[in-house]
Input
Amino acid sequence: MAKISLTLIQTFYQVARHGSFSGAARDLNLSYQSAANHVRRLEQILQGKLIDSEQGAKRISLTPRGRALYSLLHPELDIMLERLTKLIENQRSSLRVGMPQAIFFYLFPRVLSRFREAFPEMEFAVYERDTVLAELVKNGSLDVCISERYFGDPVVPQRLLGSYRLSLVYPQEWGEPPQQHDIPRWAEGRPFITYEPGQTLRNLAVDFLGRDGAIVQPAVSTSGSSSVKRCVEEGLGFSIIPSWCVGPEDRTISSAKLTNLPEVRVYFGNAGFLQKHPMVQQLFEDCRRELVGPILDPSRSSELSLPSL
Output
């Protein structure tokens, strides 16, 4: 079989997406006839018809084989082309990684230190996000994401790194911590500091505090755990944050690990076509070495069937 060129694949993809040769030709800056010739050449190489079109018809239809090929390409081809464009524009090797602000601030410098021993010349661009990480990977804006959300999207395969517990934190002058089952009642009337709407940890905390119909009204909402914790240190209220945000040096706040809340899982995800890329593989291994054990609880055997590459 003759080699298939990216040009032929890209032309077919755009024809299938637009439903016409003319639409694809406009996108690719080709003539109508060139777009049609590219598809015909691909059909010859694959020895099968991909598109049905009648003479003079403005719209085309895909054959069963054409639909199968389009489903295989979408949306991976867009992500790959976006990635190639970025590489060519920058003319420098880079890895774009998204993660919640707290994970980068508290945990990631040690991972980054190890990773840069292997790739000292590469730019490591970090996007501190909690929401929209899957979409940023899918549209080509990110290569890798570390998230507390499981997307369930085959285009962004995820591996479970481990899990952690949340802790109640409050100004030390408030006294002894309440019993865990009493926390929702203890919290009533006290100012609650939490994350911006939509963030995973805010949702978990609000669900916990709102048990038995209690109304949860945050006093302050901010973007990440470092900001939330700072507000608690200043005596502005209490919060529920990752246990690894609190250390022995934090002398103005008290904390209590919440074992009655579900563990928060942390996933490593990437664009599917990068799953065997050496930089992505190195980063995953560095995350496991630096985080699993010292910070994150290892995956249990019952969790091993969860998403993997």
